[in-house]
Every structure is written in structure tokens, then in C-alpha cells.
Amino acid sequence: MQPAFRQTEKEEVHRSEPEDDESDEENKTAEKIRKNIRILDDLPEEDENGDVIDESAENGDDGVDLEPKKKQRRSKREKSDNGDEPIRIAREYYSNKDAKAVYDIMMGNKRKATAKIIVFVIFLVVLTLFSSLKTLFADLSAFGNSEYAFLGVNLMLLLIAALIDVGEIKKSFSLLGRKKITRSMCVTVALLAGILQCIAAFSGHGELPGNIHIYAPAVFVPLIFTAVADKVRAKTDIADFEYIVKHPDELYSVSKIEDEGEAFEIGRGLLLGDPDIRYSAKIGFPSKFVEMTLRRDPSDGVYALSLPAMLTAAVITAVVAGVISKNLVYAVSAFTAVTLIGLPASSCLSAFDILKTTNKQLRRSGSLVSGYYAAEDASTANAVVIDASDLFLYGGCSLHGFKLYNSMRIDDAFLYTAAVVIKSGGALSDVFDSVILSKRDILPPVESLVYEEKLGCSCWINNQRVLVGNRDLLSKHNVTPPSEDEEKKFLKSGRQVIYLAVEGKTAAGFSVEYKPNGDIARYLNKLEKYGVSVLVRTTDPNITEELVEQYFDLPHGFVKVISPVAGKMFKELYETVKPSGDCKVIHDGSVYTLLKSFAAAFLITDKFRLSSVLQYIGVGIGILAVAAMAFTSGLSQAGALQIIMFVLIWTALVIFIPRFKKP
């Protein structure tokens, strides 16, 4: 191995040729390397600040050992939430042998929902047609001009619908016994309200007052919405499942750093009271897919809040309308009308439409959010940790020139620097890798590599002390760096400088440029708006909080470069492959899909909050309008068709307005 320096005193800018005693193979390699580099022309040898650097003694080591550990870390199991309702799962996805069974069950759920939709739509169309003929033309010829026959057909179809949805009805009462209201109760309430009116109408001796409508057609709207929601959910789950099964070796999870000590150390400096930090973890198998998809239905919260209020309003309206009209059938009809227009029927449909449209976009780029449980879990995070090299485009960073000092050989300057930069895994690794033509076997071995915070790396190469970093690193180790005036020539046009020092002497300076990954800037800005900080691991002293914030147009204080100790912890976590991990937020391992899917989790919860607000507004407007009509004996203006039209129009708003919030 050739020595790092020639034994000369004069500083030079070299285009050196290989020594005569080098082998032919080494000559060819050196020649190819030289074709990939050029001298920085604006650093002339005769520059007045180009004094010979004095050799000085070095300080002791300071920093964190970057040598990889051979010991494999054990993955941790995620804690289960004991407060959750138990979930009945027909078949869980534990291994590939379960794939077909799970897929068949999901397809069965889709077919079942489709069948319900077809039947309920037919019932809706038939009853709406009959109701319209009666209202507009007083035509009951299809029923032998009998109100009883008309009421009987309405009641019969409602009872058939109840029989079809008997599972939902049983589930609603079972959950009600545990003081829990879900979308199943919406189906039950709608059916009971419609059936109650039909039964009450029979007390009118075959004739209904002229200002009363039968609202049975409107009952089928929430039933259809619930069935459509089931179908949308099944289709989304099937598409997500197909993606997971087809890409078994490309699955990474947006995982939480579970160890409190590690989370505290990595999040140190962000003033996080309870750090919830996420990172990209390679998983061998996405466990609990079915459970993760079924574990949370956010529309249940909407029903739990609105159904009691709506029923209270319906009862009050019925009582007041009954007192005013002194007519039991009118009072019951008022109750039914308020109930059907006040049900937040589209909440479940909106919830799963949001998940469907978001995941459809995510899967195109290689990621997905398995369900609302995953989205809500991810949206509790307050930081994400990534490697600095992922912030910059692979092959996008550039070497614009260099200058040699103290008779350093050009070959050794690049080999030493490349060896340290590549071994430390910095953002410039691909730059120096291209210089050596990816022939890493020609690099000298690097020993005792240490990253010193905000300074650079120190190590031993061929029993020589080597430093690669900024001028402060050189000064700390008693190496005199080039003057600041000379350094400015490296820094033109926003470029940065990296120095190489060997055995107490400055050996070379490199003018480098970083090119940020523009594709991720959008999602970094979105995470900032969601209150998520970005923690960056780096072994490159040029990559600072200020540089990252400047390149990605981020506010001050959003980015934090973690300490070498924290960086070592993160690297061990990142390089550990978990045998399995809960199938929550999944991506293909790139930083782009990591940030996109992570931001999408926040977006999903944001969209549903917006749709919920719109749903509450629609419920309030509908109840007030129908109640006002009931109190003024104007209930004839609120027929089944009018209620259906209002619900459909408002549902369109609830579903489509949140779609304008793009990921």
C-alpha cells in the first residue's frame, strides 16, 4: 500500500500519474477513476492563502463508534389495547396458507353486500313508485283502492328487509346491552320507525289523513347506505390484501419505537413530554391483517353521539305534534319523519369511501393504510426519524471539484475519503461510489470509525489517523484547516466543503453539492402542519437542521439532527428485520412511501372529521325542517320522496367535499 503523502514540502494541486512500480491493473483503475473527477479550477496553487499546513498533535477520540454490531436485536411485540371490544374473526391471516381462505371470506362479504343492495334498491324503487302514485294522483288501483292493502305491502317489505338484516338487528341490541351504539342501531331504528308508522296507520280504519305520508320508502335509504358501506369496505380490504400477498418481500411498517428509553434518547431536544416516534421497520410478515381492518369503525362514534339526540328530538316532535293535531297517527308519522331524516345514515359510507379513495392512490406508489385503527394509531405520533441519505436523491449529489494539500496523492485522497464516506453511510456515498466505479474492493479497510457530532468522522486507515469532516473537526484534532477566505471558494453557488486530513495534516478539500429529493418535500410540509417533527440521523456534518429546512422550505425548529448515540440506536432499529409486525401502515421501504403513507394516516382522520361535521349539520337541518312542518300541520310537505332527496343530496356533500383534501 502506498503512503498517504509524498515526502515533499511544497503544496501542490495535482493531476498525478501512478508510480512506475504500480501494477498494470492498478494503472487502469486509477486512469478510469481520474476520468470521473476534475481539479477545481478556481483553487489555484499560487493563491495567497494557500500556505503549507503545519502538523500538530491530535486530541483523543470523541463520538460514537459506528462499527456495526453483530448481535441481532429481538423484535418487540406491540401491546394490545385491552379496552377494545372483542372482534369476531372468521379467519385470520397468519401465513400464506391462510391467504385463499381469507380472500374467499372477503369475497363472500362483498357478494352478500351486493345482494342486499340489489334487494333493497328494488324495494325502494317499488315503494317510491307506489307512494308517488298515491300522493300525486291518489291512485291506489294497484291495491284495489284499499289503504289497508297499500299499508300491508309497505309493512310486508319492511318485515322482509328486517329478516334480511336480522343479523344487524341482533347485533345492535347485543351492543346496546353493553351501552354501545353502532351503525347497526341505525338500521334497527330505521326499520322500527317505519314498521311503527305502518302499524299505527292501520288504526286509522283504512283511511289516512290527507296530510300524512307513509315513509316506508325512506327506510331503505339507510339500509342501502349500510350495505354499500359494507361493499366498499370489502372491496378496499380485498385490494389491500391482494397487494400484501403479491409483495411479500417488499413490506415495511411505519412502526413505533416502543422502548421508552430509546424513544426518549432519539427524541431528545424536541421537548416531547411523551415521545411517540415512528420509523420504517422491515417486517417479515404482516400479521393481524383481518383484525386491523375490522378493529375500528369511526362512524360508530357519530352514531353514538347523534342517535340519542335524534331520538330525543323525534320523541319531542311527536309529543308536540300529537298535542297540536290530537291525532295519534300524525304524531307517530312526525316521529318517523324526524327519525328518518335525522339518521346520520351516510356516515359509515363516507368513512369507507375515504379509506377506499386514499388507499387507491397509496397502492399505486407502494403503500397502504389497513384501516381506521391504523390511521388513528399513526396520527398520535409527534415525530418520525429517517436517515439523512434518504433526504437526497440517489445519484443527485455532485462533486464539483477538489484541491490537494501537503503533496497528497490524488488516488489516495479519493480512496481514503470514499472509504470513510461509504462506510459511514453518508448522503455522499453514491458520489464517491461512482468515482471509484463501484469497485469497493479497492477501498482500504476502515477501522474504529467514529462520528463526532456536527463535525464529521474519524478513523484509522493503514495505521494512519484519518479525519473526514468540516474545518471544526480538523481544528478539534489540532489540524490547521485552510483559511476561511480559501474555503469560500469551495462554497460558491450554495455548495458545501468536506475536508480530508491524514496524520495531522490537511490532505484535500472537496466542493460538493446536495440535491434534495423534491418528491418528499410535499409530505414533509404536510407532516409539519400535522405537528410531526422530523428527526434526522446523519454522519455528514454538512447536513444540519438549517440546511434541511432551507432545502425543503420548512419552518425553523421542525427538523432535529439527532445525536450520535441516538443515531446508533436508530440504525440498529432500522437494520433489524422484525419476523412479523401488525399490518397497520405499510409501505415498500422508500422514504417517499414512508412519508406519503404516514401523512395519509393523518389525512384519513382529517377527512373523516370533516365529513362528520357535515353529517351533524345535515342532521340538524333535517330535524329542524321536519319539526317545523310537524308543528304547523304542514307534514304533508315532507313526503317520503322529499326526505329521500334531502338525504341523497346531503350525502353527496358529505362524501365529495372531503375528497378535495388531497394526500
How do the strands line up in the largest sheet?
1-8-9-10-11-12-7
Low-confidence stretches: 1-22, 39-61, 68-83
What structural class do you assign from the helix and strand content? alpha+beta
Number of helices: 21
What's the mean pLDDT score?
85
Biggest pleated sheet: 7 strands, antiparallel
- β-strand number: 16
Shape field: elongated
Percentage of helical residues?
Answer: 40-55%
Q: Which value, in Å, is the CA radius of gyration?
A: 35 Å
Q: Beta-sheet strand percentage? A: 5-15%
Q: Tell me the distance between the termini.
A: 55 Å
Brief characterization of the structure:
The protein is an alpha+beta fold and 663 residues long.
Describe this structure in words.
This protein is α+β, with helices and mostly antiparallel strands and 663 residues long. Helix content is 51%, strand content 12%. It is built from 21 helices and 16 strands. Strands 1-8-9-10-11-12-7 form a seven-stranded antiparallel sheet. Strands 5-16-2-3-6-13-14 form a seven-stranded mixed sheet. A hairpin with a 2-residue loop joins strand 9 and strand 10. Helix 3 packs parallel to helix 6 (216-246) and helix 9 (299-325) runs parallel beside helix 20. It is elongated and about 110 Å long. The model is unreliable at 1-22, 39-61 and 68-83 (pLDDT under 50).
